[in-house]
Each structure stands twice: as structure tokens, then as C-alpha cells.
Amino acid sequence: MQPTVISTFAGCGGSSLGYSLAGFRELLAVELDNNAVETFKLNFPDVPVYHGDIALLSSKECMQMAKIKAGALDVLDGSPPCQGFSVAGNRKFNDPRNSLFCEYVRLLKDLQPKVFVMENVPGMITGYMKQTFLLIMNTLRGCGYRAKAQIINAMYYNVPQNRQRIIIIGIRNDLDVEPSHPKPQTKPISFNNAIIEIKHNEMPPPLSPCFMKYVPFMKQGQTGADFLKGKHFQTKRIYANKVCPTITKIIGGTGFGSHIHPTEDRVLSIAEMKRCCSFPDDFKFIGSYKEQKARMGNAVMPNLMKAIAEHIKINILGY
Question: Is pLDDT at 85 greater than 70 in this prediction?
Fold first, then answer.
């Protein structure tokens, strides 16, 4: 018998892949972005998808699409958009993107799964945003769950990327089990080791002229801020023998907000980023370079979610 999961804010399917690798059966994925939905369907053709605003998805319709009754679901997974909490943004307390957390809570209350998993960025527990984090934890516990949050770095879970996230795991009170998280599993994997024997189906678009003025002079570890004033610190030539820094959405044109290859004057290819995010080589991304990078920048890393899902399956659900 397979444990079951519903993924909200499913994106391209990073968390879905992790659950699948851990032996879960996904009953429904919920996602709004058109490119993300197309990508998800291409890789998970057998999983039903609600393509639309989660605020318009009633709990009744959710259970009907998943063919499940309240209380029967094993795991409700969700990563409400975290840009409003991110240290890379302005961290506005009332950012409208943060309100989507309430939609997740609405489904949690009505579906009453045995376990829930919520992922977010560490920025939500720093400074004045810590009050928001405490509110989030109290709200989740008020739904009838014992909840525990822990900062986890994906690079210790077979993901060749330095990517810290808060993972909140909640267990329904009647199960009488304390929430826990998986222990680190691997040492960090360097960029060079991650891309061994890699095959490039296509190379990335060329850097824009403003970046090519200084990129040839960049040494490993240097950023654009070493050459130009402004926010060009987000463009960095990564180290070959260190773990890849966090991959994010592209903020501007080709180059800005991107990682520069350690020895070549270009941004990372899609194939290289897939390796650094622990997506398999045959995982299909579609659309422009910018859209494909955005999918990975927003995704939950598959191997991290695999470790979390396996921990829940064995230590919490007892499968």
C-alpha cells in the first residue's frame, strides 16, 4: 500500500518527484503558473492537476478530484510563494504573496491529513518577520497539529546546491507522534563533481554586452559588484570545487542574478542547473531559458523532498 500526497503550489514538480522517489502516490497537484503546469503535466502525465488559483479551489472540489475523504490523506504538501519573506526581497509584512498561506491553512483544516509539510525561506524567521513566523506556527497548530520547524540545507541531502529552507512538519494530534526531521545524509557535492559526464542538449543564450565587459576578468568567487556599482553582486562566478550557490529566478536580462560558469564566460546551462538542483537529466523543462531557470529557482529540490518523504513514510506514518 502506497502513502498518498496532495501537492499545493506544486510548481514544475520538484516536491512531487521527491515524493514519487520515496514511494508516494500523488492524488492531486495544484498550480497556477501556465509554464509550470505544462512542465508538470509533461513529467507527471498520470497525476490530476488543478490548473488555477488555489483561492478558487474549494475543499470539496479538492477531495473530489483526489477521490479522497476528509482525514484519509497521508500528507498535504505545500510551499506557499515565499518571495514576501525572502531576504532577497523587501520582506514586507503584508506582502499579498504571503496571504496564500491562508489558502493552504483552509485546505489543511478541511482535509485533515495525517501529516502536513510546508517549505519556506529562512528569511521568514529573521528580524521583524519573526512575528509572522510565530503567527504561522500558532495558526498551523490551531488546525489540530503538533508542528515543528527546522532550517535544513539541501546540500546535505544529495543536492549539489547550497540552499537553506525552513521545513515545517505537522502531525495530526490524534496520531500522538512528535514531529521530527531527517538527519543530514551526505557531504556537500562540488559543482565539478555534479556535472561529471554531462551532456548539453543546448547551451544558454549569450551574456548581454554590459556583463561581457567584466565577466572575462572575473575570478571564481567574484561578483559583479567587484567591477560595477549597484546590485550586480547577484551575478557571481562560482567555484568549481565548491557546492553551487542557491539558484534563483532570473531577475533581469541574461547575466543579472545568474551564476557564471567557473571556467567559461557564460551562465550555467539548463543541463548544469538540473544537476545542481538534483533533477534527473531526463526531466523535461519547456519554454525560454528564463522560464526554465525560473522553474528550478522556485522548485523544492527533489532529493531534499525525497529524504523528507522517506522520513515521514517510515518514522511517522509507519509504512
Answer: no
